[in-house]
Backbone:
């Protein structure tokens, strides 16, 4: 009876909380504002757009002065970022860290509500053995600079991780951090614990569906009616992939005795279109995922292992980024178009908060047809994989600017080791953009599964059966 009274109390409490703080004020909904595009509206117009929605936080990948200034005096929380390229200087020189904080934080704060400084993006899983050990010292120097400015308790310092920091995530109760990153992650998480800063992760049910394109997986990923999946370790039935992924991270923290470290979802989203051979992108799927995610967060239901609280979640992304390389889906995550119109309605407008799709169901799908827009559950048949040894090479005549974009993109992906093309590496010479891009593009193709669409790069690459290796420089390749 005591448990029932306590549950009733919390139910009343949360209903009261929602009445006091309506959807417009629920600050756990954020958005990623990427700028790898040449058609974005001015920052001032974008800020007006954001203010017309229930979005309360914006994550930037850098520290763009125009955007930070435009967000001044709006009350919108701002996450800024120091680039991976800044990490060596931040790690080695406390004065540089102080100057960086002066230029990118103190110049705007408190009018611009900066709440987090992210040092680097997916560094731990980048494979860059020179950069990884410098990440924590860089974060410590930024933290010390903020402390010196009496902002240590107000602005948090973190970094963003891919879900591949986990070696195990299914079932969620078995979540474990990869031993490959063990010492590095333990030190980073201890930093978070000591400074009260969040662990920021990028869970994408979209990619989970791509690796398992069954109809029941699609429904599970989209928060749509499904039979659920029982965690064999805890006995908990999960009704959506988002909760399962977040709880896997929680379990990993718990296994290391660090469950008090806050989890923040730095990126999650679903593309509304993609290349013909990509499984999953569609307007219906994107609308269902993002709309149901927002409703799930607003319900304050939480996850099974973290009930009654909504994890701060930054949806990817505010706009499409038309200059991104890779498959078409990479350029098609935008909630809004450059003309400020919605790509599709997910109930973010302050004027209309009507849920677009049902909140996560708690039971199997009813026999009646659901009211949600239902996407065709028959996956697109992927193009056949090549059958012999193949390598992914740039197309002749591709401009260096596009090759540089391909190079940057490939080397930024988790699990991609670009150290052979760094100074002193066996593939550093010839020291040209074309040579380095060729190596990086091939590594991404080989690592991503050797599918034809992994060697597209906006139609600047093609497959070859001719081994491009030379001297001591070996281009990975192999039979499928």
Residues:
């Amino acid at each position: 009876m005591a448990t029932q009274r306590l549950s009733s109390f919390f139910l009343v409490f949360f209903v009261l909380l929602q009445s006091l703080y309506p959807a417009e004020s629920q600050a756990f909904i954020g958005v990623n504002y990427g700028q790898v595009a040449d058609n974005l509206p001015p920052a001032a117009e974008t800020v007006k757009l954001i203010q017309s929605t229930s979005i309360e936080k914006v994550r930037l990948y850098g520290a763009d002065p125009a955007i930070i200034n435009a967000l001044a005096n709006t009350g919108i929380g701002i996450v800024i970022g120091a680039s991976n390229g800044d990490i060596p200087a931040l790690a080695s020189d406390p004065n540089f860290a102080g100057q960086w904080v002066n230029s990118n934080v103190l110049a705007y704060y408190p009018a611009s509500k900066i709440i987090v400084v992210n040092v680097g993006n997916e560094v731990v899983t980048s494979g860059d053995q020179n950069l990884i050990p410098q990440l924590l010292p860089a974060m410590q120097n930024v933290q010390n600079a903020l402390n010196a400015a009496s902002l240590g308790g107000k602005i948090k310092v973190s970094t963003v991780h891919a879900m591949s920091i986990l070696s195990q995530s299914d079932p969620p109760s078995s979540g474990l951090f990869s031993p490959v990153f063990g010492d590095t992650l333990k030190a980073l998480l201890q930093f978070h614990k000591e400074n009260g800063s969040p662990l920021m992760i990028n869970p994408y049910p979209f990619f989970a569906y791509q690796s398992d394109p069954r109809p029941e997986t699609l429904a599970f990923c989209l928060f749509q009616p499904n039979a659920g999946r029982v965690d064999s370790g805890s006995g908990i039935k999960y009704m959506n992939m988002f909760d399962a992924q977040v709880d896997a991270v929680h379990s990993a923290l718990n296994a290391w005795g660090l469950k008090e470290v806050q989890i923040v979802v730095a990126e999650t989203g679903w593309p509304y279109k993609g290349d013909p051979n990509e499984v999953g992108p569609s307007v219906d799927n994107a609308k269902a995922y993002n709309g149901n995610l927002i409703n799930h967060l607003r319900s304050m239901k939480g996850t099974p292992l973290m009930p009654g609280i909504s994890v701060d979640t930054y949806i990817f992304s505010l706009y499409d980024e038309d200059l991104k390389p890779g498959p078409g889906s990479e350029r098609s995550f935008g909630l809004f178009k450059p003309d400020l119109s919605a790509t599709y309605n997910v109930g973010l407008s302050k004027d209309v908060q009507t849920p677009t799709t049902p909140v996560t169901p708690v039971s199997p799908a009813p026999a009646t047809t659901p009211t949600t827009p239902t996407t065709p559950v028959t996956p697109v048949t992927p193009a056949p994989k090549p059958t012999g040894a193949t390598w992914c090479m740039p197309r002749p005549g591709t401009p260096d600017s596009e090759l540089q974009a391909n190079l940057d993109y490939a080397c930024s992906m988790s699990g991609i080791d670009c150290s052979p093309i760094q100074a002193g590496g066996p593939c550093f010479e010839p020291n040209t953009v074309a040579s380095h891009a060729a190596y990086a593009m091939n590594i991404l193709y080989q690592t991503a599964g050797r599918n034809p669409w992994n060697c597209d790069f906006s139609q600047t690459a093609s497959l070859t059966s001719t081994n491009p290796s030379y001297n001591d420089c070996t281009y990975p390749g192999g039979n499928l």
In short: Residues 2-20 form the longest helix (19 residues).
